[in-house]
Fold:
Amino acid sequence: MNTLITLTFTIMMFEMPKLPYANNALEPVISQQTIDFHYGKHLQGYVNNLNNMVPGTEFENKDLTTIVATAPDGAIFNNAGQVLNHTLYFLQFAPKPSQSAPTGKLAEAINRDFGSFDNFKKEFAAAATALFGSGWAWLSADKNGKLHITKEANGSNPVRSGYTPLLGFDVWEHAYYLDYQNRRADHINALWAIIDWKVVGDRLK
Ligand code: MN
Structure:
């Protein structure tokens, strides 16, 4: 007897974002060593944790944004938040940004809501520098297109408030300690040079 059994099942696995640059390409702003640890160890750890935790829960086969927006505080939320955060984070950088400043709709919104691009950068850097402990500073847009700068504790993300995340600075010490030690403000100010504003602008729907 010849039996052909075809098992078809789909398990949604969370994946590492593919870096659009070499691990050493963001130097001297972010060193290869920091990318190797931050992307290769920290983010890989969050992805692995999430893939181990989600199967068999109500979040199986839900997309990442839905999980971050709706999961109760706890391990799934923490790891999903960090996978979403770091995916947006690593993809917003470029060694030679195609746009070194916002244009179009995003530029208009920044001027409207923060006065100027320079003033936006000042307010954003102040939020990231002043954030107590581990967390993220985010620029996001609400449903009316109004922009917000928020400080998110630990692994949270503005999708928790129904906002669309556009730009995120990671101020966990693992993001900068190898290169800048305690000088978080220096790290934040250096990051502006590698933000690709084309990528950030495309996130504003
Ligand atoms: Mn991080």
